[in-house]
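As a warm-up, study this chain.
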Amino acid sequence: MIRHATWIKEVMSLQADRVVDCVGLYCPMPIVKTSQEIGELAEGEVLEVVADDKGIVSDMPAWCAKTGHEFLGLEERDGEYHVFVRKRGG
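Now compare it with the structure written out below.
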């Protein structure tokens, strides 16, 4: 298990309100699916994105910075990236 300490804010303790499976999907689909799913969440809820595309390591923080959602961190487990994003407030 590799932890990306730069972005980690104890993702192990996070409880996602919804999980989106993007395994097998490549850029830009993980971001597209994240955008769709986060629209279904209430303000402050957490989305976990599971992907195997390495691009998500840089794409998700950039997308969060652009959209205003809070990037909480990511963790790699057995070749899959578990990324946590909190939906921004109004």
